[in-house]
Write a structure and sequence with these properties.
It is a single chain. The protein is of the alpha/beta class and 229 residues long. The protein has 2 domains: 107 residues, Rossmann fold, CATH 3.40.50; 115 residues, Rossmann fold (3-Layer(aba) Sandwich), CATH 3.40.50.10090. It is built from 9 helices and 10 strands. It has a 5-stranded parallel beta sheet, with helices on both faces. It has a 3-stranded parallel beta sheet with strand order 8-9-10. Strands 1-7 form a two-stranded antiparallel sheet. Strand 9, helix 8 and strand 10 form a beta-alpha-beta unit. The longest helix has 18 residues. It is elongated and about 60 Å long. The relative contact order is 0.15.
Length: 229
């Protein structure tokens, strides 16, 4: 996404909010009709311990699908609308009687997808395959940018958890007031709702929950601002 950001005349600054640790245990796919994933870290964890590239992968959102395809998986489909749309998505794409699904995740799950799918008649086996530890401090580069008189114009969030971690670390550095001069661009309305708990210049969400949509939204905001000036 960094290259795309540069193409709309913005300078990207990466600030990871978590340290990811992938599990080492083998994953046996025997008996499952498909794998459910909700993040690129889940597919990275599978890829680390399995060489099977044709097994059906069902993703929540296009970002997870893109990550799977970039790793060489060839039988990948994605839902839209987040976890709430999963039962409808799987009912359309699969047969409940064909066997259980293996749900790979990092332990911090938004909503209740396993219970929701169970109520819809699907058998789901849940397995934690990675952990994400929160960072406790910003890098010197990122901290310096927010300490400037004019902080970064845009701050993007790809999940509720990363927003919360960013909020907490900014507060620990005494930099939370700086966000009143920044625009938050969130990957979904749900993330945007959480972001609005603190003061921003503006808060926006994307149309289709994807990285390219984040870039598109920033471009639209910049063009609207220029037209109004």
């Amino acid at each position: 996404m960094g290259a795309a950001i540069k193409n709309i005349d913005c300078t990207p600054i990466a600030a990871s909010m978590m340290e990811i640790h992938l599990a080492e245990e083998p994953i046996d796919l025997t008996g499952y009709q498909g794998v459910l994933i909700t993040s690129k870290n889940a597919i990275r964890a599978l890829d680390k311990v399995s060489e099977e590239k044709e097994f059906p992968i069902f993703c929540v959102g296009p970002q997870s699908r893109k990550a799977a395809e970039e790793l060489g998986y060839t039988n990948v489909k994605n839902s839209f609308g987040g976890y709430k749309n999963l039962p409808i998505f799987l009912a359309r794409e699969t047969d409940k009687a064909a066997g259980p699904f293996l749900f790979l995740h990092g332990g911090n799950i938004a909503g209740s997808p396993v219970q929701d799918l169970g109520k819809a008649g699907f058998k789901i086996v849940s397995r934690r395959v990675y952990s994400a530890g929160a960072i406790t401090t910003l890098s010197d580069e990122v901290k310096a940018e927010f300490e400037k008189t004019s902080p970064p114009e845009f701050v993007t969030f790809m999940s509720i958890r990363t927003y919360k971690l960013f909020r907490d670390v900014m507060e620990s550095h005494g930099l939370l007031p700086k966000l009143k001069d920044c625009i938050a661009v969130c990957i979904s309305p749900a993330v945007a709702d959480f972001a609005r708990e603190i003061r921003w210049k503006k808060v926006y969400s994307t149309d289709d929950m994807s990285g390219p949509s984040i870039v598109k939204k920033i471009s639209e905001i910049k063009k609207a601002t220029e037209a109004a000036s």
